[in-house]
Design brief:
The structure is a single chain. The protein is of the alpha+beta class and 181 residues long. The protein has five helices and seven strands. Strands 1, 2, 3, 4, 5, 6 and 7 form a seven-stranded antiparallel sheet that branches. The protein starts with 10 loop residues before the first helix and ends in a 12-residue tail after the last strand. The model is unreliable at 148-152 (pLDDT under 50).
Length: 181
């Protein structure tokens, strides 16, 4: 996997924001996150509630770019009710990794749509915690290998996921946030 999420304005921007909000703590709280501070990221942001220490995940917030790409609103929906098993596997795997480590992760997937379009999705998920130990919310961002107007309405729930994915812990020791990130 050669995608440089550190320098991506959305994914790197989310990581920089998360680091700034974390301060000297292991992870920030949900209350620390103020959407008015990151308007440039909001169209690509996801907030996913972690239920039962990762037994389930519910979309709390889905940015407008993601709604357009997916072709529907996910807010308030559970991952296991919304996505078929082969698609929810990578979201749940990434969520478990964030919950287990308390650190951000990067996830890359490819999808094939019913209209013969291949879509690459690159995501970063970072933990938020209400008690400083357990992850209560995944703060994420997603960008695509195609411009949003090229994939709007093409995604759909019938898109097939490539079983090969790339998931890695974000090495915060090598990440140098941009000034103002």
């Amino acid at each position: 996997m050669t995608y440089d999420y550190y320098t991506d304005p959305i994914l790197g921007g989310l990581l920089a924001y998360w680091i700034r909000k974390r301060g000297g703590r292991r992870m920030p709280t949900r209350r620390d996150i103020d959407p008015t501070e990151i308007p440039q990221l909001l169209p690509n942001v996801q907030m996913i509630d972690v239920i039962g220490n990762g037994a389930r995940y519910r979309y709390r917030l889905i940015g407008t770019e993601l709604v357009a790409a997916f072709g529907r609103e996910y807010t308030g929906k559970f991952v296991d009710e919304l996505l078929p098993p082969e698609r929810r596997y990578s979201v749940e795997l990434a969520g478990r990794m964030v919950c287990d480590t308390g650190s951000p992760v990067f996830l890359h997937n490819r999808y094939w749509t019913s209209r013969d379009t291949t879509i690459a999705a690159n995501r970063v998920y970072a933990p938020l915690s209400d008690n400083g130990r357990d992850v209560s919310v995944l703060l994420g961002a997603c960008v695509f290998g195609l411009r949003i107007f090229e994939i709007a309405g093409l995604w759909g729930l019938d898109a097939k996921i490539d079983p090969e994915h790339h998931l890695e812990s974000v090495d915060l020791s090598t990440f140098a946030p941009r000034v103002g990130g």
